[in-house]
């Protein structure tokens, strides 16, 4: 179960990817299979770097951010709103 993802602060949606396929999606990222290949390509680029490790990758936009985390065979993509300062 990936219900813990809905409890993240300001979560707008998420994707859970395993073996190149979406296992679960919800919110603004529901049914966004078109994001899988670009995300996996970014992870592959990071894997080619000297240390070859990726724990978290954050992509910031003006109103939201997307965080990519890999653990074991799962890749978690979470879209979160940015709070105004």
What do these coordinates show?
By secondary structure, this protein is mainly beta. It is 14% helix and 42% strand. The chain is built from 1 helix and 5 strands; from the N terminus they run ββαβββ. It has one helix at 36-47, and strands at 11-18, 21-27, 56-60, 64-71, 74-81. A 5-stranded antiparallel beta sheet has the order 2-1-5-4-3, with no helix packed on it. The longest helix is centred in the middle third of the chain and has 12 residues, at 36-47.
Describe the protein's topology.
Layout (H helix, E strand, L loop, with lengths): L10 E8 L2 E7 L8 H12 L8 E5 L3 E8 L2 E8 L4
Antiparallel strand pairs: 1-2, 1-5, 3-4, 4-5
| N- and C-termini, Cα separation | 33 Å
Question: Total helix count?
Answer: 1
- Please bin the fraction of helical residues: 10-25%
Q: Secondary-structure element sequence?
A: EEHEEE
Major sheet description: 5 strands, antiparallel
Mean pLDDT: 87
How many β-strand stretches?
5
Low-confidence stretches: none
Instruction: Identify the quaternary structure here.
Output: single chain
Radius of gyration: 13 Å
Beta-strand share of residues: 35-45%
Question: What would you call the structural class?
Answer: mainly beta
């Amino acid at each position: 179960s990936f219900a813990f993802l809905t409890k993240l602060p300001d979560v707008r949606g998420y994707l859970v990817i395993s073996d190149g396929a979406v296992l679960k999606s919800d919110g603004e990222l529901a049914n966004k299979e078109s994001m899988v290949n670009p995300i996996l390509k970014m992870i592959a680029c990071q894997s080619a770097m000297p240390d070859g490790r990726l724990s978290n990758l954050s992509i910031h936009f003006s109103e939201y951010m997307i965080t990519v985390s890999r653990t074991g065979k799962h890749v978690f993509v979470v879209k979160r709103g940015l709070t105004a300062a």
